[in-house]
């Protein structure tokens, strides 16, 4: 007998998804606050967005409602656009300063 995806997701308790997403989000926040490299900061922001996506998908599966999963799709599209623009900016900063340290970006002020 084949089971559907929401039934498979419901075999794991909801608290595990919450703990996993909390750990991912905490790692992302720690990376943003501690690290100074712009690329690592972008990766940590993506990690935080993925933690939110995990929670939305888990809650959506537990409630048997696909609205949150549609919202996850839009979050992923916005995150992809953010990465494209952000990496373009980081590449231009690296070409000018040969460094991606965010502390050195105060030179961009007028």
UniProtKB/TrEMBL annotation:
It comes from the Bacteria. GO terms for molecular function: NADH dehydrogenase (quinone) (non-electrogenic) activity. Keywords: Cell membrane, Membrane, NAD, Oxidoreductase, Quinone, Translocase, Transmembrane, Transmembrane helix, Transport. Its EC number is 7.1.1.-. Coiled coil: none annotated. It is found in: Cell membrane; Membrane. The chain crosses the membrane at residues 14-34, 39-62, 68-94. It is a multi-pass membrane protein. It is an enzyme of class 7 (translocase). NCBIfam families: PRK05715.1-2, PRK05715.1-3. NDH-1 shuttles electrons from NADH, via FMN and iron-sulfur (Fe-S) centers, to quinones in the respiratory chain. The immediate electron acceptor for the enzyme in this species is believed to be a menaquinone. Couples the redox reaction to proton translocation (for every two electrons transferred, four hydrogen ions are translocated across the cytoplasmic membrane), and thus conserves the redox energy in a proton gradient. NDH-1 is composed of 14 different subunits. Subunits NuoA, H, J, K, L, M, N constitute the membrane sector of the complex. This is NADH-quinone oxidoreductase subunit K. It comes from Hymenobacter aranciens.
């Amino acid at each position: 007998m084949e089971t559907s995806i929401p039934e498979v997701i419901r075999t794991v308790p909801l608290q595990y998804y919450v703990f996993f997403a909390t750990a991912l989000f905490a790692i992302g926040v720690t990376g943003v606050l501690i690290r100074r490299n712009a690329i690592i900061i972008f990766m940590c922001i993506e990690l935080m967005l993925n933690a939110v996506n995990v929670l939305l998908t888990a809650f959506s599966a537990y409630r048997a409602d696909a609205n949150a999963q549609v919202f996850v799709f839009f979050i992923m599209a916005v995150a992809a656009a953010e990465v494209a623009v952000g990496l373009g900016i980081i590449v231009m900063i690296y070409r000018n300063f040969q460094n991606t340290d965010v502390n050195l970006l105060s030179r961009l002020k007028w």
